[in-house]
Amino acid sequence: MRILLLLFALIASSWADPVTVTITGIRNDQGQVAALVYNAEKGFPDQRGNAFKIVALPAKKGSVTLTLKGLEPGKYAIAVIHDENSNEAMETNFIGLPKEGVGVTGGMGYSKPKFQKSLINVAAGQNISIFLKYF
Predict the structure, then answer these.
(1) Measured between alpha carbons, how far is 135 from 119 in angstroms, rounded to an integer?
(2) Residue 17 burial class via C-beta count within 10 angstroms: exposed 0-12, middle 13-18, buried 19 and up
């Protein structure tokens, strides 16, 4: 009986509702919008190779909603980049400010976002909103 209950619990957890992320403030339909999910500080907020999970969609002026499937409940920092030229890299100007839209959980200020300040508790079925900022 215990094995059956354990099996049921494992199956139920794998069917958990996905997390949705709504990105607003997208200035045009060019390129793609990518959400980079980090469970550690290394590479946050823009190094794709260090992201725990990445989901990208074609950009759409205004807003898009993307789905994070299979994300276990826990603490994560999520960065969103409007990769207007689809080169999978954050374009910056000569002083290091992003030339493309960027947003993070916890909100953007006028300096590079900090991982610890961007951490949020994520639960199955949660809806997260992130506003893109263009410098």
Answers:
(1) 23
(2) exposed
Q: How far is CA 47 from the centre of its chain?
A: 12
Of 20-24, 25-29, 96-100, where does mean pLDDT reach its minimum?
Answer: 96-100
Q: What is the reported pTM?
A: 0.87
Is residue 21 packed enough to be buried (19+ CB in 10 Å), middle (13-18) or exposed (0-12)?
buried
d(CA 26, CA 103): 10
What distances in angstroms separate CA 114 from CA 37, 40, 43, one per listed residue? 14, 11, 11
DSSP 105: T
Helix (H/G/I), strand (E/B), else coil: 27:
coil
For residues 21 and 83, what is the distance between their CA atoms, to the nearest angstrom? 17
